[in-house]
Amino acid sequence: MTAPSPPRRPGADALARIGHPFPDTDPADASPHTFPDGGTWRTEIPSVEGPEALAIVLKESSRLDVPVHRISQGSGIWMLTDAEITEMVESCAERDIELCLFTGPRGTWDIGASTRTDSGGAGLRARGHDALAGCVEDALRASELGVRCFLVADEGVLWTLHRLRADGLLPGDTTFKVSALIGPVNPASYAVHERLGADSLNVPSDLTLDHLTEIRRVSRAPMDLYVEAPDDLGGYIRMYEAAELIRRGAPLYLKFGLSKSPGIYPYGAQLRETTLATARERVRRGRLVLDLLARHGADTGMSPPGSRLPGELTRFPDTGHRFPTSTAHKD
What pLDDT shows up at residue 265? Predict the structure, then answer.
């Protein structure tokens, strides 16, 4: 049996015809990891802010034949009613798509002024006990309604939710996804997030291919990466690198974001038209990426539809330490 030919690199044949030098691919750069189903990549449509936007995404993905493994939302669980969450859970279940909702209060919407300074302060992290508790409340509430994937933007929230999962207060098949807004940028921090309980990690879209290879030498935890990033994350468009991103970063979620588009967080009816239009366009962007992969012979290796679990990952041990229940002063 003849081995399949390697994917064609963009422009390679035409450049070779005119004698233009082309850099060699180093096989040692390739990720040795896959998803537990053997796939090297999955797809995600982000910023799907409610049932109406979800219906648009599902309709367009069927029309354009864009397979979707995960739908994610950015405004937060607390911005959705129980009925809206239930509708989204049921719609995704019908299509065997993972639904990922963002947890709790974040520093950028808190009363603290430091996030509005040039330095950005503590960013999206949960400020204080009440914000941490709000994230826990969000996860417990959504879990009871059937949600099994949560977006997290704070290391303490991540570790706390992981401990709740380990203790059975959240279902064992619950997964945690690290937000792009705190995404790790080096191998050591990537490995730490995995050990804190992350099941997939959204890295910033400006990481180089070498950075992805460096990460893959220390961790097999699934990686999420915007092939096209929103403007507030840099607006990077890396469609022509999609095959190489998969080769170097597998197992990888290809995220179909949208640049040159207004922000929609936190979502409300005043942003309805923009939200629905951008939901539709994100699916079309996905179709463009899939077409490009097919033209280059690099569209194999996708996980089967319905795949969602990350496989066995490395965790810090939970020593069973419990914080004091009272700090009352005693003479």
Answer: 85
- 70-105 burial by CB neighbour count: b if 16+ within 10 A, else e? bbbbbbbbbbbeeebbbbbbebbeebebbbbbbbbb
This prediction has a pTM of: 0.90
Neighbours of 3 (CB within 10 A): 5
Q: Please tell me the distance from the alpha carbon of residue 110 to that of residue 134, in angstroms, as a whole number.
A: 12
User: C-alpha 19: how far from its chain's center?
Assistant: 40
Rounded CA gap, 243 and 41, in Å? 10
CA–CA distance, 329 with 307 (Å, rounded to integer): 52
Taking residue 116's Cβ as centre, other Cβ atoms within 10 Å add up to 10
* Per-residue pLDDT tens digits for 148-174: 999 999 999 999 999 999 999 999 999
- At 193, which helix (H) or strand (E)? helix 187-195
Per-residue tokens: 200 = 């997939």
Dist CA 296 CA 238 (whole Å): 15
Residues in contact with 50: Cβ distance below 8 Å, sequence separation at least 6, in sequence order? 73, 80, 84, 88, 267, 275
Q: CA-to-CA distance for 109 and 118, rounded, in angstroms?
A: 16
Query: Residue 104: which of 71, 128, 86, 122 has the closest Cα?
Result: 128
Kind plus residue range of the DSSP H or E element containing 192? helix 187-195
* 110-123 residue pLDDT tens: 666 555 555 455 56
List the end-to-end C-alpha distance of the chain, in Å, as a whole number: 82
